[in-house]
Fold:
Amino acid sequence: MRTVLFTCAGQRVDIVTSFRRVGARTLAVDVNPLAPALYHADEHAFAPRVDDPGYVSALADLVAAHDVSLVVPLTDLDHGVLSRARDELGALVLLPSPEIVDALADKWLAHLLFVERGLGSPPTWLPGDVPADVEYPVLVKARHGFGSRNIFRCADARELEFFLGYTKVDSMVQACCRGEEFSIDVFCDLESRCLNAVPRTMIESKGGESIKGMTIRDAELVEVGRSVSETLGLVGPANIQCFREPDGTHRITDINPRFGGGFPLPTAAGSRYPELALALAAGERPEPRLGDFREKLYMTRFFSELVLAEDGDTLKPFAEELPEPVAEP
Structure:
């Protein structure tokens, strides 16, 4: 049984439990003792903050102590650190090269990368380079960040000037796409071959995360997923966000080199991404199965919770039982 270490585990209970279901031993790590995914793993541990100088060595100690063969980051926070620490960690890290990780973490650099590699991307400018005759609406978007934070739609030049002055983060300006938005969940091997690509609709999102969607069998989107991931040299999981414009072209707006927020949907559709990840950790070379998934599966998400109780100096899941009825005197 292979042990998988999940960094920045946070709320990603769905991912941790999916790996458990296919036979992995799971070790979830987070700085926050109230991160719910910790308590859905076989074992959990606490780590320093990502920006702490001891972060990598703390993970390396866990890898050695638990015989970890695979490291899976669950948020964007430590991608840059982990992509540069493969040799120190002593386990397979499911991330592309540091250069690709850095570019994808900065939406301006990502746009430049897409253009350089011949991938469609909406017209994008730094704030001082927006042409006077730009066509509105446009978006003011944070260069760094996640969860759709610090994104402002501008209907005219007055709003553009206001939001560029209002935002407190380093930003860029991007043309609004006019077509339908899709997400494509892909998984690539260590040679950046795309093993599968599962497109889904974006029926509803909240905070930048899909809460309602449907898998679709669309050959063009499957090919977009394959082409983009292999052109950029992605490794492991990634979520590609794109628009299909009225002229039929596809514009890439964002790529997250990790399992996407809609992970349960491609998993239910038969993507087998956890099994593929474990196969890579075992040194296997799975063959691509592009288009091998079930279409027209819908996902609709809801809140859930985990109650914890103090147990010495730690916390443990608490199952509350209904009290016995009070007997009448």
